[in-house]
């Protein structure tokens, strides 16, 4: 049997695919995100490899289950490859500056060059389109999928994790959506699942990038089972021994029974949660009529709770522009179906990835690592409504995700 630890020793492909034979002759497909030195951050190549394999497995009647895990001991997947998007944004900014200095001159001679510039300009849009296609496929998949969420689950990693039917978290799970710290917003379906959390939790997490442990993840509806990571191989062995049926519905029940048995044995190893015990405080802090009042309430809140203090510090670091985008998007996405949410997120993500706030956010946090971003606005009150609204306008006559 191929496990997540042995897989990385055999081959260094960014994603590993393996088919495991069950005791009754069926197959389990195992996907391992295999770039542990980069915390299994998603690249476009990894996304396309998974899309292709999952599509093929979807039509294999003998395959009854897919398991997704991350290589190494630190992360399931710590997000998308934002540094690659940053490099594209930098190149586009330089090209735009050069073009603005040129005369309109020889349009014919520059036709090929302009087409290359246009293709480069839409690299981010293509990345997000493929990423959201993968996320939506997972949500709609016709077979059970188990995501083993050990370690960091952030950003794009949460998009994969949230879409799976059976989501396992462990004693070292750290789940978060910290996009407001780099000039973006919680995407990959975040506009959908954040709105389904208890009380004002979704808004609070989106604005503060607060991290969740295993207990928190289950409480807010982002995970289903809390199992010690040491039980991974034994869990796979238990799944192999299941008497698999032809019905996905029947197989989901069998999976639930198997994983529940491991979860009961793991409760003592898990840390205490933060959300449930602080839910009343979270609701009070986010009850304001405006984003400005909510930001002020969190910023001025006095507490000795270390988790809330970290959330407060995260908010102080965040881009005010991103906070305004996030609040508007969450409000706009309420009650909307997932397909519509992904279409709207694609518009917003494409537009934001071209903006200087994203470039500055990534520079400060991930490139220079000085953690001194020079945000465009100093507070949310300074941002004109019409400035925010322009990022929600589609650049396409037909959305690339219209055929989801």
Structure in words:
- The chain is α/β, with parallel strands linked by helices and 404 residues long.
- The chain has a single domain (4-82, 124-392), classed as 2-enoyl-CoA Hydratase, Chain A, domain 1.
- Helices cover 49% and strands 10% of the residues.
- The chain contains 18 helices and 9 strands.
- It has a 6-stranded mixed sheet with strand order 1-2-3-5-7-9, sandwiched between helices. Strands 4-6-8 form a 3-stranded parallel sheet.
- The protein is globular.
- Mean pLDDT is 92; it is low at 103-117.
How would you sum up this structure in a few lines?
The chain has 18 helices and 9 strands.
Q: Note the run of SSEs as H and E.
A: HEEHEEHHHEEHEEHHHEHHHHHHHHH
Shape: globular
Rounded Rg = 22 Å
What is the count of DSSP helices, taking H or I runs of 4+ residues?
A: 18
Number of strands: 9
- Binned strand content: 5-15%
Low-confidence stretches: 103-117
Estimate percent helicity: 40-55%
Give the total of domains.
1
Alpha-beta classification = alpha/beta
In the sheet with the most strands, the strands line up as: 1-2-3-5-7-9
Largest sheet: 6 strands, mixed
Task: Look up the CATH topology.
Answer: 2-enoyl-CoA Hydratase, Chain A, domain 1
Which whole number gives the mean pLDDT? 92
The CATH superfamily label reads 2-enoyl-CoA Hydratase, Chain A, domain 1
Distance between the amino and carboxyl termini: 35 Å
Name the CATH architecture: Alpha-Beta Complex
Q: Tell me, what is the CATH class?
A: Alpha Beta
């Amino acid at each position: 049997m191929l496990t997540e630890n042995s897989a990385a020793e055999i081959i260094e492909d960014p994603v590993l695919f393996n088919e495991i034979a069950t005791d009754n002759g069926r197959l389990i497909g195992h996907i391992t995100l295999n770039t542990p030195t980069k915390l299994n951050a998603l690249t476009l190549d990894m996304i396309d490899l998974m899309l292709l394999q999952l599509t093929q497995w979807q039509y294999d009647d003998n395959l009854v289950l897919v398991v997704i895990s991350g290589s190494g001991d630190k992360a399931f997947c710590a997000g998308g490859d934002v540094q690659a998007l940053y490099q594209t944004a930098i190149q586009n900014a330089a090209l735009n500056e050069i073009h603005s200095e040129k005369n309109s001159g020889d349009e014919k001679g520059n036709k090929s060059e302009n087409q290359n510039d246009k293709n480069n300009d839409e690299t981010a849009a293509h990345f997000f389109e493929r990423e959201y296609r993968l996320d939506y496929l997972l949500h709609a998949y016709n077979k059970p999928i188990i995501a083993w969420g050990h370690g960091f689950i952030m950003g794009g990693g949460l998009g994969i994790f949230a879409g799976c039917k059976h989501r396992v978290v462990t004693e070292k799970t750290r789940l978060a959506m910290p996009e407001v710290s780099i000039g973006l917003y919680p995407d990959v379906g975040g506009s959908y699942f954040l709105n389904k959390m208890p009380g004002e939790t979704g808004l609070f997490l989106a604005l503060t990038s607060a991290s969740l442990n295993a207990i928190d993840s289950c409480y807010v509806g982002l995970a289903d089972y809390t199992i010690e990571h040491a039980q991974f191989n034994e869990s796979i062995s238990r799944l192999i021994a299941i008497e698999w049926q032809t019905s996905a519905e029947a197989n989901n029940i069998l999976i639930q029974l198997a994983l529940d048995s491991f979860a009961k044995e793991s409760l003592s190893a898990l840390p205490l949660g933060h959300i449930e015990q602080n839910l009343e405080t979270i609701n009070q802090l986010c009850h304001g009529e405006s984003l400005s009042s909510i930001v002020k309430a969190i910023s001025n809140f006095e507490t000795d709770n270390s988790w809330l203090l970290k959330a407060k510090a995260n908010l102080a670091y965040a881009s005010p522009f991103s906070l305004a985008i996030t609040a508007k998007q969450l409000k706009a996405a309420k009650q909307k179906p997932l397909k519509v949410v992904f279409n709207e997120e694609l518009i917003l993500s494409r537009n934001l990835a071209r903006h200087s706030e994203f470039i500055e956010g990534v520079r400060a946090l991930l490139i220079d690592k000085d953690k001194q971003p020079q945000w465009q606005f100093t507070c949310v009150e300074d941002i004109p409504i019409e400035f925010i609204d322009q990022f929600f306008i589609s650049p396409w006559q037909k959305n690339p995700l219209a055929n989801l």
